[in-house]
Write a structure and sequence with these properties.
The chain is mainly α and 124 residues long. Helix content is 80%, strand content 0%. The longest helix is centred in the middle third of the chain and has 38 residues. α2 packs parallel to α3.
Amino acid sequence: MYIVVIFFTLIMEYFLAAKSIGTPVYKILLKHLLPNILSVIIVQATLVFAVQIVAEAGLSFLGFGISKSVPTWGNMLTDAQEGDILRSKPWIWMPPAIIITTTILCINFIGEGLKDALNPKSNR
């Protein structure tokens, strides 16, 4: 919590300094603040997107998610819970499990790549 207070204090001082030399508010926001927080926003959005996929799959696997009539990755894993299917029919449960893992990794790699590409402090 203390870090958040320090962060907002620094932002307020930054705005006051820019405003005191006559910079319009829209210019402060578009040219100074937005490029510095854009990478953080994109990484946060990709992480939230990945968490939502895992949450949907997990809740569907437990039976609390989307109805059984809709084919989702969690419902596919729920259908493969029987011991016979787990031991002798891995082609039923492995594809949804592999695709969930691959999708989450790809989303995280895309978020990290965008963060590096949009970071104004990096050398291009």
